[in-house]
Structure formats: structure tokens, C-alpha cells
Amino acid sequence: xxxxxxxxxxxxxxxxxxxxxxxxxxxxxxxxxxxxxxxxxxxxxxxxxxxxxxxxxxxxxxxxxxxxxxxxxxxxxxxxxxxxxxxxxxxxxxxxxxxxxxxxxxxxxxxxxxxxxxxxxxxxxxxxxxxx
Length: 132
Fold this sequence. Notes:
The protein is mainly α. It contains six helices and no strands. Helix 4 (56-72) packs antiparallel against helix 6 (113-129) and helix 5 packs across helix 6 (113-129). The model has no long low-confidence stretch (mean pLDDT 77).
């Protein structure tokens, strides 16, 4: 654990009023660092900084990154976090075949895998409906 003078404390108390500072403070509020390597944490932060969460494909990359982490964690299920393989979420979404105007619900959301799988076809349907 990083203690009260470590990196997580600094991130919880990050100054600034911009959206990114606020997001970092919220993410690290109430969390402790159990990662043994500061280098690994830096690599994770670098990857996150490179993701534009306003772009669907990049949000999908983030979901895959998180799913990969969960998959590697031996204790993932102990905390209610379960990894559903992307092929399974894609198959289920294809079978449900959501249509424009329907409500999507993923009550266990997690990484948003089901919602991400539905987003692409729905956007294509919207473009087609708008004649684009």
C-alpha cells in the first residue's frame, strides 16, 4: 500500500478544476495502491492518457484493456467482477439484434462490453436512417 504520503494520496488530492483533474481525484478517492511496481502503474497511466474517451473505438480499447486486467486477476470473481469474453458478448448482442428506438439495459455493466458491442450496429443503422 502506498501510505498517506504516496502516489495515491497525491492523486486523490490533485489540484485543479478541469474535468481531467476531477476525474483523477474521483478515481483514486477511497482506493489504495497494492501494485508492487511503480513502473507498471506508470505504464497503465500512460495507456489511459492515450485514450480519447469521446471516440467509440478508443472506449472499446479501454474496455478490452480492463477486461484483460480482470482476466489476469486470480481474485477477480471474489469481488463480483466477472469477465465475459468478447466473443460471447458479441454473439449475445447479435442474437438480440437491438434496433433503433429500443432501450438497451446491461444491469451488470462492468466494462460495458454488451453496450459497446451494440453501439456499432446502432450507429450504422442511424446513419442509414438519416441517409448518410
